[in-house]
């Protein structure tokens, strides 16, 4: 006589009930299948697969409310299960509750498999994406209509961006400093010019700076060096193609807090213009200023700057058509002589799709929202770390 354990007996019963349910569904007897699966879930209420099988049988029988109840039981066990979430969206879809279905499908799509091979899953995913896209379009239209009623002449720029974020038309980018994060500072992609009373006077030097740049390009081209210059022993990631390449080069005027030897002779007017800027003063680190040259058909990959304690100023000097710059969700074309200030700890990238060189003057300034005490603390922390480490991370300090 062979003895079996209670657990083995349970497994055998569940296997028989599940097999019987599948056979019943194959023959079109949904009532029997439901009966068998209800018996199985009663025996083992913590089986995700059994609840999903029951939900599927109930859906096949047209009992959508009961099927939803079974899906809810499955989600109580595993709230992030893709199959359960997808089935929940499908049930709402079949019931004609399209807004609810769109939202449910959106949640399911967060957990979709990378490359499903099952044609049924592929088809269900395609349906989920269509319904979710319709939901997002309807949501955006409802938001636009509501805002248009509140603003007769259209919403101000800040409100328009809020609307785009909420409607899902614009991706949200947040600061991600590669090394130093100073808490409490407002985050913006491009900062309002009104925050920088010196910016118009700085722009007034454009012609003089451009003249000094052109003389250096003609007489001292060897001063331009690769912007990215790292040893092969460090992880280069997106910088592999630009490492030690003159496709993206820099002519430094102030580097790691000190003027370069040729700066006073070659760039006196540029240095005069830079004195207008509230540049950081961190020994061995800042201030910093350089001409950044991007060769034709070259792209600077998306990246994040080192610290939100400083902001970055661009003064465009040579800008052929086909050049562009993106910070977060906002893309702008450079205009010669038109400076801007941005937070480079937000993901940003640049490109030159033209057949000519693009050159801009880049300089750093203190974050406009840093107090004198904040600046003092930041400088002390960075200086202490540099002293402890005995060196400066070149790539990190430049990008």
Rg = 31 Å
Which CATH C-level class of the largest domain is it? Answer: Mainly Beta
β-strand number: 11
Mean pLDDT: 92
- What is the CATH-assigned architecture of the largest domain? Sandwich
Number of folding domains?
2
Shape: elongated
CATH superfamily of the largest domain: B-lactam Antibiotic, Isopenicillin N Synthase, Chain
Number of H/I helices: 14
CATH topology of the largest domain: Jelly Rolls
DSSP strand (E) fraction? 5-15%
What is the helical fraction, as a range of percent?
40-55%
SSE arrangement:
Elements: H1 6-26, H2 30-43, H3 48-60, H4 64-77, H5 82-94, H6 98-109, H7 119-150, H8 157-167, H9 199-203, H10 206-219, E1 225-226, E2 248-255, E3 258-259, H11 263-266, H12 268-274, E4 289-294, E5 298-303, E6 310-318, E7 323-327, E8 330-332, E9 340-342, E10 348-352, E11 358-366, H13 372-389, H14 394-398
Antiparallel strand pairs: 1-2, 2-3, 2-4, 4-11, 5-10, 6-9, 6-11, 7-8, 7-10
Helix pairs in contact: 1-2, 2-3, 3-4, 3-5, 4-5, 5-6, 5-7, 6-7, 7-8
Describe the fold and architecture.
The chain has 399 residues and is an alpha+beta fold. It folds into two domains: 6-137, Serine Threonine Protein Phosphatase 5, Tetratricopeptide repeat (Alpha Horseshoe), CATH 1.25.40.10; 193-398, Sandwich (Jelly Rolls), CATH 2.60.120. It is built from 14 helices and eleven strands. The strands form two sheets. Strands 1, 2, 3, 4, 6, 9 and 11 form a seven-stranded antiparallel sheet that branches. Strands 5-10-7-8 form a four-stranded antiparallel sheet, with no helix packed on it. A hairpin with a 2-residue loop joins β2 (248-255) and β3. α3 packs parallel to α5. The relative contact order is 0.09.
């Amino acid at each position: 006589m062979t003895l079996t354990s209670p657990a083995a007996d349970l497994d055998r019963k569940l296997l028989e009930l599940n097999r019987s349910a599948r056979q019943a569904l194959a023959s079109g007897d949904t009532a029997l299948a439901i009966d068998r699966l209800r018996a199985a879930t009663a025996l083992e209420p913590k089986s995700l697969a059994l609840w999903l099988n029951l939900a599927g049988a109930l859906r096949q029988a047209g009992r959508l409310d009961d099927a939803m109840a079974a899906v809810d039981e499955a989600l109580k066990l595993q709230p992030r299960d893709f199959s359960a979430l997808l089935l929940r969206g499908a049930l709402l879809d079949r019931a004609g509750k399209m807004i609810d279905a769109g939202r449910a499908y959106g949640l399911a799509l967060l957990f979709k498999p990378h490359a499903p091979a099952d044609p049924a899953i592929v088809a269900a995913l395609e349906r989920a994406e269509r319904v979710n896209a319709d939901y997002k379009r309807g949501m955006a239209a409802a938001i636009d209509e509501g805002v248009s009623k509140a603003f007769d002449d259209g919403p101000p720029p800040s409100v328009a961006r809020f609307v785009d974020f909420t409607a899902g038309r614009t991706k949200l980018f947040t600061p991600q400093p590669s090394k130093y994060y100073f808490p409490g500072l407002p985050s913006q992609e491009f900062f309002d010019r009104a925050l920088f009373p010196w910016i118009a006077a700085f722009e007034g030097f454009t012609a003089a700076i451009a003249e000094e740049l052109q003389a250096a390009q003609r007489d001292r081209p060897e001063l331009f060096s690769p912007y990215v210059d790292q040893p092969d022993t460090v992880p280069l990631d997106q910088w592999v193609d630009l490492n030690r390449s003159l496709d993206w080069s820099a002519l430094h005027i102030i580097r790691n807090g000190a003027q370069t030897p040729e700066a006073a002779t070659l760039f006196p007017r540029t240095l005069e213009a830079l004195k207008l800027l509230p540049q950081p003063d961190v020994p061995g680190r800042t201030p910093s200023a350089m001409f950044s040259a991007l060769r034709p058909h070259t792209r600077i990959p998306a990246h994040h700057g080192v610290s939100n304690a400083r902001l970055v100023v661009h003064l465009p000097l040579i800008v052929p058509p086909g050049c562009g710059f993106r910070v977060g969700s906002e893309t702008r074309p450079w205009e010669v002589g038109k400076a801007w200030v941005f937070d480079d700890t937000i993901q940003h990238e640049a490109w030159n799709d033209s057949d000519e060189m693009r050159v801009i003057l880049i300089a750093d300034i203190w974050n406009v929202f840093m107090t004198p005490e904040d600046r003092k603390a930041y400088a002390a922390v960075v200086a202490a770390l540099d002293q402890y480490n005995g060196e400066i991370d070149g790539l990190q300090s430049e990008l």
